[in-house]
Sequence to fold (108 residues):
Amino acid sequence: MVQKTVVHLTDDVDGGPAQHTLTFALDGVGYEIDLSEQNAGRFRQSLAPFVRAARRAGTPRRPVPVHVEVDSYDPQAVRAWARSRGIDLPPRGRIPQDVVEQFHAAGN
Fold:
């Protein structure tokens, strides 16, 4: 099945169609606003004197990605293996790590 998602932006000021999403920050709070070509121009024009007088701030720090090791396994296979060995597991939800370790130790 093919699914197509169409996004129509609406101007946050006048409710008409929007072509631009502008991102800005003021007093340490970030904002986004969807605007038409005309309103985006008005927005930029009204901020122009302040932007000319301002100095650029450093880019905000982004969090350092954390590497997480993911133990990939087939939950159905682990549940079937555990059932065959009399290990009681709920039919849904997270499988305890010790059961996964036993599953791998058994050569799976």
Remarks:
- The chain has two domains: 1-56, 75-105.
- The radius of gyration is 27 Å.
- The chain has a mean pLDDT of 84.
